[in-house]
Amino acid sequence: MRRIKDKGPLTFTMLVALLIALRQFLGIYHFTDQGFALGMVGFLCLFLWVLPHWSLRFIGSIGIYAVTLYHYFPLGQSLGGAWLAALWRQLRPLLTMVREEGFGRTPSLLAFSLVFLAVCLIAVLGIEYEVFSLSYLSLLGYFLLLSIFNHLEVLPESLIIVLCGLLAAGFRHFRSVGGTAWLRYVLLGGGLLGLLYFAAVNLPDAWVRDPLASHSVTLRNRLNEAGLYNFVAEVGVGGNTRTGFGEDDEVLGGALVDDSTVLFRATQDSPHYWRVDSKDQYTGKGWLQHTTDQPQVIEGANFTVTHSETENFLHRQEIELTFESLDTYLPLPYGNSQITLNSGFSGFVYFENSQRVNLLVNEEETRQLSMLSAVPEFPVSALQQVGVTQGEDFDNYLRLPGSLPQRVADLAKELTQDAVTMYDKVNAIESYLNSSPEFRYSKVDVVAPLLDQDYVDQFLFESKVGYCDNFSTAMVVMLRTLGIPARWAKGFSPGTAIPSFEERKTYEIKNLNAHSWPEVYFAGYGWIPFEPTPSFTNPARPGTPEEEVTSSSVASSEVTEVSTTTTTTQSSESQGSTSETSQVQNEQDAEDSTATTNRKISWLVLGLLLVIGALVVYRYGVYWGMWLLCRFTTQPLAKGYPYLLRHLERRIPRKSGETLLAYSEKVVAQWPELADLMELTRRYESSLYGGQKETTDSRELLLTVMKELPKKR
Q1: Which is more confidently placed, 620 or 444?
Q2: Cα 375 to chain centroid, rounded
Q3: Is 275 helix (H, G, I), strand (E, B) or coil?
Q4: SS3 breakdown of the chain: % helix, strand, coil, rounded to 5?
């Protein structure tokens, strides 16, 4: 029981500080299920508080750490030795990456492992060993890093961390001198905590920021001259990679960062995917072009590209392209396109098998072209009647490496066991990849497979975290195990529409819009795109209504990373929808409603904290005022007695000319609990009129009387 009494307030302050810090981390890494981690921190503090023996507290802390880590990263295993082995396989290359590249970008698996371990250690330091300086300063250091590297405003949270540390130190002091003062201290601290948070959140930042900025000019200039800001910029950004569309896809995988450089702009009626290239040979690590593709050079300003075998088209639209980069590939919409070169180009290079078009560039600075695009119609009812195409011409689109694990084919067979037609099988695998809760979309958490791991197998059965390259490659490979011709295509998602009131919109397509997806061959229709990557919608996919893709869609995407130290180019993407479907709109409405509710709840909680804080200050403020007077003066009686007298007179009026001793007798007669007031009055008069020195116990007498005064109303 003594431990519970002694450690209770320390546990409370540490819990508040840890919850505030952990919420920031979970928000930065976009963990949607934050409640579990925050709840486990509560259990961690509870175990450190109430468990009687250190061994139980140690085991409990280890268990909480393991369960929390497993909840967010199960890695396709049950909690146990197999999971620990899989976890180490995932962490090992991440540790190597951080050792070589630094902490500029840290995947969430490694970041969560380290941060939650730090949470456990800080909790032990603050609750078990009461090392407040190291524990709370560590949390403040974390908020400093957030402010520097993530450009977050964390002043309110930092102030609360400071207050929690002061409350913990204050309680420890009161505990050492004995008495029940610690209870009032905790209640007062809780009220101050609410008041401080309310003020920090709602008062203008400029009230604090502007004075700090004006008084720190000299210091910041010196730090800038010393190179600190330059170092922060280099480390914070991670500065050793760039992203964009690349040609080398032989090795895929790994965490990536986006690049917002604009590549080209398109003025058109409606958004669509931009196809550039396709590849047919899966190596187990990435993609190559196996089929020999002799380029056809076409001189002149006009060329027609036929991507579709169907004669049925939904509509036609005129498109105008303006290029900002020096790349020679031509991004095209699905369907048939009549291209006219306007400036900057002199001809075309066409690759028939991959259906890729490159441009011959001249010396003109402006690079523009226009095209008339016919959007093909892929009716689902008709595709349901199409069977699997066979023949030597399609062997390359069925080829798989002999090292592909059998469980990939087994999974594909299991997913399509109830599908009757080829289209149903394609749709079943696509739905599994883009809708299954087993998979998580992320570009920063992706771990490159080890040397002995297959790229698809590692994604499907171990990491289950990936971006477009993972999802698209997995779908192509699984379709091929079923004997369905498929290939890997890449290009760009629709891009971002520049706001305007015109019917025809101009879209900016950036490096970060680079994307990859599978294509499946349907006889009579040609190569048809599908979209297994979560949150992406390709308007050319069969069964996709046009209204699902609007001009306001903002596409984040797959991109390609080019390392400054290697020649390997890898695809990457950032999560985002390329369309506004009704489902997305409903989800947005739900999110808005939830956000509104959360704001109301937050204001309610803050209001309650404000009321509680005001009540605590009202009831115990008198005592704490006396405590401060006694604490910071060498003459507590000379300073404290007039303070006590003023508050007594507010409750029991003092008559004009009434002596202090007579007034004290009247007060004690009404409130016998203040009997020590008589002794205080005698000592005060002796000191005031007789010149006697104050005794050492006068401070304790003052505090004893003041302790009873708040109870008298």
Answers
A1: 444
A2: 38
A3: strand
A4: 50, 15, 30
